[in-house]
Task: structure prediction
Amino acid sequence: MAVKDRVPMPEQSPEERIKNFSEVALGYTEEMALAEANRCLQCPTHPCTSGCPVEIDIPAYIKAICDKDYEKGIEILKDTNNLPAICGRVCPQEKQCEAQCVLGKMKDGKPVAIGRLERFLADLNLPKKRVNTKSQREKKGNIAVIGAGPAGLTAAADLARMGYDVTVYEAFHKAGGVLVYGIPGFRLPKDIVEREIDYIRKLGVKFEYGQIIGRTIPFEKIRQEYDAIFIGIGAGAPRFMGIPGSNLNNIYSASEFLTRVNLLRANEFPKFDTPVRIASKVAVIGAGNVSMDAARTARRLGAKEVMIIYRRSETEMPARLEEYHHAIQEGISFHWLTQPVEYIGDINNNVKKVRCIKMELGAPDESGRRRPIPIEGSEFIVEVELVIEAIGQKANAVLKTGFPGVKLNRWGYIEAEPETGKTNLEGVFAGGDIVTGSATVIEAMGAGKRAARAIDRYVSSLKRI
Result:
């Protein structure tokens, strides 16, 4: 196989997968993984590693695959990444590690499929040497982690491996955060998430569910009982457009819609007693990964026509290209340069139409993308039966009362040092979406990893006093 040929990922056919919630991408066979791994040039400067927020030694685990030493490859992954089976599926590798791959910079070249190889190794689930058994030595200290999403899970696992006694407090009845309530099973199967969390549990990390710090347990009590705290509760609250008609029936936030299906299993109603509206014509507002997830979920729930409405063009779309291509294959249509301005309902207050206006792109705004500008006189009507707004999230409202003394910025997120997660309160650290706003899973994990190192330095300094 020529060096430039990238091994494709086997997938369910679009015709079959829109009828189920099983994983779309089926994973590499050993033969495929070996062929792809042998494309790696093993560059001495390791540029791919510089693009990884959790600092995986990418050439080393790819070399282990080439040598068929899969146990060693898994050990290399687990040395810096506690959730490799998850990262191999949902990380935007094309914008991170693969963007730095030398092969991808060659003429007509394609980068090594780093994420697919990570998934291959992680999915082997070899029993030997996978878990660092719980240490019997005296613990270095006790740490509270608030929130069991990607940032909290990473911080908890890293701290446990450093020798700390770690307890994670989670508001839901399950750990995983966005991994369980936000990302559909056809992208990230829930048994994969359970397996990765079980690994973290075996490191000695304890989980307390149904706990909302600041409500069920006072924040000050947590501060008194632990040497340090990491807050990783995610952004949490949905953001709405607030246009006229937003109070009509059958208008969801993407977070509610996806939580009903992913965590509360509304797709299996009435076996599970969480209902979800199924409509023939669905409009999803926004074009990020969450929008693609919502649109593709609606398609699987039986919607005959699903459209994505986005105020910018395809070029500015924040979603991963892989998810975009999958959406197109599954029959999702796109209204580019289009902005909803009003929802129109029927006599029963059910949404029936969306009034939209066409947009044109002006100069770049603070995001670096060209600003959309309405075109006067270009309004038109789109008929719908259900609308899902997926335009981002905002800071969790529990911060305003539940974490007294923690300094917030003007958007309501926690102010924390980017490299350490240190907040204005002694011994309190934070990271992930509750600091940066909505970001990727791997970026949240990177924040948890950096904070874990900072917490270790902080608690170690206390012990020396």
